[in-house]
Write a structure and sequence with these properties.
The protein is mainly α and 370 residues long. It has a single domain, classed as Ribonucleotide Reductase, subunit A, CATH 1.10.620. Helix content is 67%, strand content 3%. It has 15 helices and 4 strands. The strands form 2 sheets. The chain has a two-stranded parallel ribbon with strand order 1-2. The chain starts with 8 loop residues before the first helix and ends in a 13-residue tail after the last strand.
Length: 370
């Protein structure tokens, strides 16, 4: 079975590459791969036509929460931050440093992706409800990306966000795909950060960087962003039935599989926190699945033995693909084609597994109680 212990650093380096300077960091952020966060654009006219009247009471309550902005002063580094960086960072091994940098760069790219998408929607719509929501969410994601970038600058590796916006390619998604994917991204972001925060709250000796002290209030922003998309989808129930159930199923599986493979490139990162990568990922899946019952009528059975075996196989195929890419030549191309086909087949098997059915609750809003 492939797990964190089974991946040596040669495998990790193949999958995540190395970052030695600011040029490497910026190139990594710009690069689009199967595992890297992407930038999105959408149909702004369709977004402008959204109607939240069916959920008006919950919507107005949420807008007041955004206006209250309880995190307006949160993303400021305190006096202890620089001292912790000075003491803790020299203790990182070169391998651990690379995994942590990969975590920071991919997290920043993901946060900045949300900022760009929300800001673009804000600029292109006249619908006052959607414009107001996107303004608030872009504000939050901008803070998150900027805060991570400060930590990258501690390594002299800051990302040029303006250049990133101009040079990274964009993927077009229909609004409903934006809703499914972004809802899951925000909720799984909450689950990831709160799982890390709770672990390090209980084991402060394993907190190897001060940024983790900010994760509790930070991930509550992510939670609220997910709530926003939940309300939009519940206001448009046609998005949650018929053929759209197949799309929901696809996006849940795609988000889970991407996270699982990516996380298994960072075994030392999780080990330093007292996790094993597989254990950590399934806890995140469990929390995300619990939350998503507020809006999705179906969920993936994360405990099905075929599901677990398939996730493991996707990690193995990712390693094999990276080895084939490094080998190069005709044999390398054949190897990459073979692993790609096997990955598609494995994903298809996972997609065809039976799903669990959910009865949508009358009360849509949830609280971040994990």
């Amino acid at each position: 079975m492939t797990n964190a212990a089974a991946l040596d650093f040669d495998h990790v380096e193949l999958l995540i590459g190395t970052v030695e300077n600011a040029a490497d960091a910026n190139a990594k952020a710009v690069r689009n791969t199967v595992l890297s966060p992407r930038f999105y654009t959408t149909d702004f006219d369709a977004m402008d036509k959204l109607n939240v009247e069916p959920v008006r009471a919950e919507w107005d309550t949420m807008m007041k929460e955004y206006e209250g902005d309880n995190n307006h002063d949160h993303f400021q580094r305190d006096a202890a931050f620089a001292e912790e960086v000075r003491v803790l960072m020299p203790q990182l091994s070169p391998e651990m440093r690379q995994e942590f940098l990969d975590f920071l760069i991919s997290s920043l790219t993901s946060e900045f992706s949300g900022c760009i998408l929300y800001n673009e929607v804000r600029k292109h719509v006249k619908n006052p409800d959607i414009k107001q929501l996107m303004t608030f969410m872009a504000r939050d994601e901008s803070r998150h990306a900027g805060f991570i970038n400060q930590s990258l600058r501690d390594f002299d590796l800051g990302i040029d966000l303006g250049q990133l916006k101009r040079t990274k390619s964009y993927t077009f998604f229909k609004p409903k795909f934006i809703f499914y994917a972004t809802y899951l991204s925000e909720k799984i972001g909450y689950a990831r950060y709160i799982t890390i925060y709770r672990q390090l709250e209980k084991n402060p000796d394993k907190r190897f960087h001060p940024i983790f002290r900010w994760f509790e209030r930070w991930c509550n922003d992510e939670f609220r962003h997910g709530e926003s998309f939940a309300l939009i989808m519940r206001a448009h129930p046609e998005l949650l039935r018929g053929v759209n159930l197949l799309w929901i199923r696809f996006f849940i599986l795609a988000v889970y599989a991407t996270m699982y493979v990516r996380d298994h490139t960072r075994p030392l990162l999780h080990e330093a926190m007292g996790f094993e990568s597989t254990e950590y990922d399934y806890e995140v899946f469990r929390i995300t699945s619990d939350i998503a019952r507020q809006v999705f009528p179906v969920e993936v059975d994360i405990d099905h033995p075929v599901f677990r075996a398939g996730m493991t196989h996707l990690v193995e195929l990712s390693i094999a693909n990276a080895k084939a890419k490094e080998r190069g030549g005709v044999m390398g191309l054949i190897g990459r084609a073979s692993t790609a086909l096997q990955a598609v087949y494995t994903f298809g098997r996972l997609y065809l597994l039976p799903v669990k059915k959910n009865e949508l609750p009358a009360d849509i809003r949830m609280q971040p109680t994990w």
